[in-house]
Amino acid sequence: MTSVSYLIRSASLLGQTTADVLIRDGIIAAVGTDLGADVIGDATVIDAAGLIALPGMVDLHTHLREPGREDSETVETGTRAAALGGFTAVHAMANSSPVADTAGVVEQVFSLGRESGWVDVRPVGAVTVGLAGTQLAELGAMADSRARVRVFSDDGICVSDPVMMRRALEYVKAFDGVIAQHAQEPRLTEGAQMNEGIVSADLGLAGWPAVAEESIIARDVLLAQHVGSRLHVCHVSTAGSVEIIRWAKERGISVTAEVTPHHLLLTEELVRSYNPVYKVNPPLRADADVHALRAALADGTIDIVGTDHAPHPSEAKECEWASAAMGMTGLETALSVVQETMIETGLMSWADFARVTSTAPAQIGQLADQGRPLEVGEPANIVLVDAAARWNVDPAAMATKGRNSPFASMELPGKVVATFFHGHPTVLNGALNTPYRAVTAS
Amino acid sequence: MTNSSEAFEDLGNSSTPAAVSRVVLTAADIERALTRIAYEILEANKGSANLLLLGIPRRGYPLAQRLAAKLAASDPAVDPATIVGQLDVTMFRDDLAHQPTRAPQSTTLPVSGIDGKTIVLVDDVLYSGRTIRAALDALVDLGRPRAVRLAVLVDRGHRELPIRADHVGKNLPTSSTEKVRVHLSEIDGGLAAKDEVVIEAGA
Amino acid sequence: MRHLLDTESLSYNNAIQILDTAQEMSAVGEREIKKIPALRGRTVVNLFFEDSTRTRISFEAAAKRLSADVINFSAKGSSVSKGESLKDTAQTLEAMSADAVVIRHWASGAPARLANSGWIDAAVINAGDGTHAHPTQALLDAFTMRAHWAKLSGTASVGADLKGMRVVIAGDVLHSRVARSNVWLLRTLGAHVTLVAPPTLLPIGVEHWPCEISYDLDAALEAGVDAIMMLRVQAERMNASFFPSTREYARRWGFDDARLAKLDALAQKDTIIMHPGPMNRGLEISSAAADSPRSTVLAQVRNGVSVRMAALYLLLSGDMREPATPSNFPPVVAPSVPSVKDFS
């Protein structure tokens, strides 16, 4: 195979220093300001003046829907969306049909990801068989499979049985796995439609109390401490949850936490329209929660941004609120929303952005070749961002099958100009290029 | 919702401020016309027996009250309070679908009811005749009068239906682009309140 | 006025206009010929996703007295129960040239969804949605209260509001669209509202509503009340631990014979007792109270037709060529987010 190389010229690395980056054979071959012609060779030059270079984003929380709900999304369409959004790896949640609760299903998803070639697809394994909460899935078999599953979650459903949660936390220690909990006390949220508070009282929609999330997180951090395991809390949505996680971290409990872009920007006031595009689990919360989440992401209490990208067919949203499906698309807007809420507000730098969207999620997911620094010898998973650009969100123009973007028609900052996945440009000039084809050993 | 209770003739162009207007009936003219109409009514009815005056909102109603007072002045047997009513025709109009929403006015009938009575409908301006058509429909739903007559302060022509007034204060030839405005102190109160009928030139 | 979806966004002037128009409509109901041609040629669809014979026949009578054509569309036994979506049902009605859709739905917000989604052009009247709103019920309640209030003060009710009136609404506020719509409308009309309920049957956030909250019905009565409205307790609440037993509920929060006697003892001779119906006699209201001269239950039913005639008339009689009269009736708060488009 011939050597393919690219020279990213004059990019601002993490928004800090301007340099050229030479990519060769999927690896960062050189970084510098005056790379000689001998070093550059026949590399394709990409003018990145004014662009910010970041490590490829890693999503710990993506619903790719395949197998089973290919009307909503496929691995192919979902990973195209991911590449366009600046991602080089996504974790595919287990609530497909069949559920990803066996080595067979996770290997299928893993293979589909490899075939598509737009990003790394890392399957998340179910904690319990069929997400039913009654019997542990074969966590070890999934860990040992070709998919090398390390993150386990019943996301969409809470592992509410405390004994089941304890066993899961303990069991995954055998292969250094992590349980990603969807914190939602089921009895407190029966029929729940939106955050419980002033707006739910007005709208007559069944309330989803913050305590339903916070009580599970409180229980789980104590369980994690007791059994000495790693806990990851999915999509933290309330100020109270932030306080509990902060307390747990201060006590040295091994807990990581995630926030979605939509919980950083949107509030429950939007529900007053009764437009189900704003229906999501966990629900949009109050303004004070949004600000607590931003502060927590900035100070490290919340470790990462996870999109909870949840595409749905249009009929699942073009209906009355109570009948509508929960979930929002997010892969193609995540970067812009985080820039809008965290960087434009001065709460974070682009280096912080790289930490919460790439380095930290790669560490939680134990992806050795993702979330790496932009240094010589590292895998060339790189995204180039035009931070000065502004664009109007048009769900119809997205690569995801889901049209359920709550950011529709909003103007947001930041455009992904190029995404390099193992040194191959999956996205160039803001549009899909070609997928990466791994050099197979055979 | 536009709470429009303007007279039929005003609709559609009532917002245009009039550039030119001339008074065609003064307060004294109106007074004399009503006096004459009251006599005509008594004469046509051969007295005041079984006579009811129903004013069409808004300005027909005070005109009906004034006529009743004049009837009482000439015939002590008449109690003006018991022979005057108001007949709202809003919901019987044929143009409801083509105009801004109108709030209905109240219909109040004398306690005697209208069955077997001689009804004199009273309105300020007779124009297309559609208001009176609506009033006749409204009456039918309320009972069966022995006879229905029509008294108007001004007949400005341009009829669109075969309707004719029995008693007319003044025949006023107009162009259809002109507007006839009746000012009555009961309705158009305020400091400058004075009775008059003016013609405003059209745009 | 384009739609009637809730009372929270109903302005004072529009509320008074509806009540005043209803006053004229009530005169029609007292005539020998109870029909006027105002909506001749207009089609009103009663779209009921939830059983409510009382509300449906009230709307049906109202539309027919205005000479509109009425189509009753019940979710029971129709394609709706076979999984047809609200959108498809709405567009079917649109294709049949419905001028107004009177919608009753088990889901809060379904009427707003219908009105704001762009699926149909027809005027939408909310005939009760989930636990959200029931504006025509609140309007008929206000109409009933206004007639009483005006009679007490010896003035005409037309043009009047409810300034100074003290209203107690007692019962299952949490699940009550009637209570919600009344709270907002009575606030607009100047009445002073006290909600009385067990704490389990008040929504979180109720403290932000424009009313007082009490857990003690007797104290609320002793404070002086001009109208007391008892809310229905749904059967499905009785076994969901909202209260220990129906007996305890009736004792603490029901309008029983003792409380009826208490009104007399407190010399509150002009206090009326209201109920939106249907009543659970012996639970939230005793038979003696329901049948007492204070009870306005039947007047409320009668006034319901007048108020619904007014709403239909004001929504439908206007200019067909103009989609809306902009300044008066604000739509419910709807951020400008376009509807999710189809994809193929």
How would you portray this structure in words?
The complex is a heterotrimer of chains A (442), B (203) and C (344). In chain A, 28% of the residues lie in helices and 22% in strands. Chain A is an alpha/beta fold and 442 residues long. The longest helix of chain A is centred in the middle third of the chain and has 18 residues, at 210-227. Chain A is globular and about 65 Å long. In chain A, 62% of the residues are buried. Chain B has four helices and eight strands; from the N terminus they run E-H-E-H-H-E-E-H-E-E-E-E. With 203 residues, chain B is of the alpha/beta class. In chain B, 41% of the residues are buried. Chain B is 25% helix and 23% strand. In chain B, strand 4 (118-126), helix 4 and strand 5 form a beta-alpha-beta unit. Chain B is globular, with a radius of gyration of 16 Å. Chain B has one domain (26-174): Rossmann fold (3-Layer(aba) Sandwich). In chain B, helix 1 packs across helix 2 (60-74). With 344 residues, chain C is of the alpha/beta class. Chain C has two domains: 12-133 and 301-316, Aspartate/ornithine carbamoyltransferase (Rossmann fold, 3-Layer(aba) Sandwich); 135-300, Rossmann fold (3-Layer(aba) Sandwich), CATH 3.40.50. Chain C has helices spanning 12-29, 53-65, 86-95, 110-116, 135-153, 177-188, 217-222, 246-253, 257-265, 287-290, 297-316, and strands at 43-48, 69-74, 100-105, 123-129, 166-170, 192-196, 212-214, 227-230, 272-274. A five-stranded parallel β-sheet of chain C has the order 7-6-5-8-9. A four-stranded parallel β-sheet of chain C has the order 2-1-3-4, sandwiched between helices. The radius of gyration of chain C is 20 Å and the shape is globular. Chain A binds chain C through residues 193, 196-207, 209, 270, 272-275, 277, 314-315, 317-323, 395-396, 401, 403-404, 406, 408-409, and chain C through 8, 85-87, 105-110, 112-113, 116-117, 129-133, 177, 180, 203-206, 208-209, 332-343.
